[in-house]
Amino acid sequence: MKKVSLTRLLVVAVWLVAVLSACAPAVSGPAGEAAPQSAAERVLRIANAEPTQGTDPATAGTSASLRVVELMHDPLWDRDADFKPIPWLAESWEMTEAGKVWTFTLREGLTFSDGSPITAEDVKASIEYLGTSELWSGRTALIEAIDIVDTRTVRLTMVRPVPELLDLPGATVQFHILSKQAIDAGADWNQPMQVSSGPFLLEEYTPKSRLVLVRNPSYWNKEYPQFDRIEWTFNEDATAGVAAVESGAADVYSPVPAKDVPRLRELPSVQIHEAQAASYMGFGFDRSRPPFQDKRVRQAVALLVDTDEKTNVCWFGTGSPLYGGFVYDWQTDFFTGFEPYKGLSKEERVDQAKALLTEAGWVEGADGLRVASGVEGVEDGTAFSVEVPFEANWPASECHTQLLQNWGKDAGLDFKPNRYDPGSYWSDATAGKFQMWHTGIPGAIYAPDSLYQILHSSGTWNPYWFRGSDPALDQMLDDMMAETDLAQKKELLDAINKLVSSEAYILSDGSQNTLVLTTGEMQGFFPRSDDSSRGLIFADIPSR
Fold this sequence. Notes:
Strand content: 15-25%
CATH architecture of the domain at 280-512: Roll
Helix content: 25-40%
CATH topology of the domain at 280-512: Dipeptide-binding Protein, domain 3
CATH superfamily of the domain at 280-512: Dipeptide-binding Protein, Domain 3
Strand order of the largest sheet: 3-12-11-10
CATH class of the domain at 280-512: Alpha Beta
Oligomer: single chain
Distance between the termini: 27 Å
Largest sheet: 4 strands, mixed
Mean pLDDT: 90
């Protein structure tokens, strides 16, 4: 037998106590009477992070929240294991006028969890509801008109041709369909037992503890899901999450620390599921004040980043690197070979960074730490010392930020990693409380949309990373998205890619692949490039 450390046993024991102590209320029947839990219920146990941005599709912007929302509300179209669009609530669609008009036809007999029919009216109301939020405004701004053709058919007229429409929800947002009646009644989608179009209903949500999802009895797809109940224990500790699946206390945990992947791949009792991701990991800058209002400082920091070291040390090779650009080499339709830092030795990059810092007025002090000398808005002699928060529940972000600390020392910069409460991390980041911060932003397989949603002033992810507005850049992005000729679009994207890299508005050195750990008995599950949990709809554990 393999030896098990006392630490590992204690971690599992603590996690089990948390699961057993979180009491699940009985499901209430129509008249409010308690319904006993069936002994034949098939239960899936998840040990993931708490959905700190709630479960309202209009405002749930983080992966932790979206993983729950995606199991509660269905989209018009979905994606298969190869990330290709497939019919879902819509049985078919038609694109006309080069993508300016899209017509979706719903399946027959669709109903919400309360038994009411899902119609074109609900589709229209859902898109309009989503568009009321800041998170969604960038998406719905593309839609000029929503026309109801008949009860099962809805027509979207776009402000311009959008042949890429089916690829746009690749950044973990989707056109979830909600009940118009519930919207009109002021439904609070963060509360349990709201009307749902998806495979599960939220039965219970206990902050800092757990949530419970129960199967939607009126779900249109009678083959799926396989489970009657999902018990989702909130876990912010990667070691505990991995240990829970290894011990059999949980069936699913993500994101898996890359450092554990080589070991876990050798265990027959678990499975590692990996999907190539178009996401971005990096750092954001507050460019409104020193030191990062000077692009030379931002450029210096970008030069100090060692992409290969990060990929090997933090991700154990489970990711895609970037070398100064923002288009991955496997995005073949749009990759032009632009990788300005690739091929430069560490010494060359550090020397260039030092020269830029000196030029910007950050000179070497007596102890090697750089200090201000003639920097506008900074008293001479002030040391270059910046606190860099990262999400406490994401091991890769901690590793990444600690490496930044080491890279900074090479040029006399002091970066101080700050382990930050994940519950308030993104709200504080978007509120402008950080001078520099670690970021992990979903991306799209469709490269133009990734940059648009991050950089455009109305982009979904702008507040999380770019945090600003550049009218000239907005116009370039608008022109790129409006261009229908693929070759021309590629040229426009290349120009944007080079501008953003030159200005070092943001910093990214690549993506971490989606890594999900499941019990070895799991069948049918597949991970997705957008970190979606939708693959769990097809999952099964036959022994249950």
